Amino acid sequence: MAHFTVLTGSETRPLSWQTLQTQLEISGHTTAVVSLNNVSWASGLDAAADALAQKVGPTSRAILIGHSIAGLVLPALGDRLGAMSEIYVAAFPPQRGQSFFDRLLSGEEIYDPTWVDGYQSLIRSKDPLTTHRHFLDYHLFHDCRADTADLYWKKSELPLDVIYSTPYLSELSLRSRHYIVCASDRTVRPEWQRHAASLLPYASVTEIDCGHCPQIARPVELAQQLLLAANHLDA
């Protein structure tokens, strides 16, 4: 039996992972979902990772799952918890010696350009579920049920400047890893996901034919991939 801990991305509520949790628990595993919003980022990424580790607590046979931005925190949290393995879901693995901003400025084409063009006006809007509903549905929830944004979207409250500007200075630990590429993603480019996965040490790679939020659009298939990855990582 493994313990799966999900670190959520910045744009969806923890509740969006409930169906996936049920699927994993039916298979005999335990689960937890932790939001990056559950800790303070005022003292920087390392202090936030310490706080996340305290919230998660020590668990045997721990498998960490990071969605989207949470990938930047996954190795640091894995080191603190002594995790067995890490699984990235359309996520941003850190690159040693570089911040996420460094990578964007160096020309890495990580995001879909139309997501970048519309995101600033989204976060400035006082009623984004009205003013930017089509934008959200197109980029995040195009393969989900019609009321998904109402149920599961939340405006990010994370200090993205802190997270994106912090370089990852450590070498990635000798730990099994897996990357799940979301092949129809309209937020984080699938081509970039494949490239990032190819650079991730000790990583295997699979793909799922869905957009940025497989926990909502394809929870059963995502659970199957996570279980297969866990079996492979444990082999």
UniProtKB/TrEMBL annotation:
<dbReference type="Pfam" id="PF12697">
    <property type="entry name" value="Abhydrolase_6"/>
</dbReference>
<protein>
    <submittedName>
        <fullName>Pimeloyl-ACP methyl ester carboxylesterase</fullName>
    </submittedName>
</protein>
<feature type="domain" description="AB hydrolase-1">
    <location>
        <begin position="40"/>
        <end position="224"/>
    </location>
</feature>
<dbReference type="InterPro" id="IPR052897">
    <property type="entry name" value="Sec-Metab_Biosynth_Hydrolase"/>
</dbReference>
<dbReference type="InterPro" id="IPR000073">
    <property type="entry name" value="AB_hydrolase_1"/>
</dbReference>
<dbReference type="InterPro" id="IPR029058">
    <property type="entry name" value="AB_hydrolase_fold"/>
</dbReference>
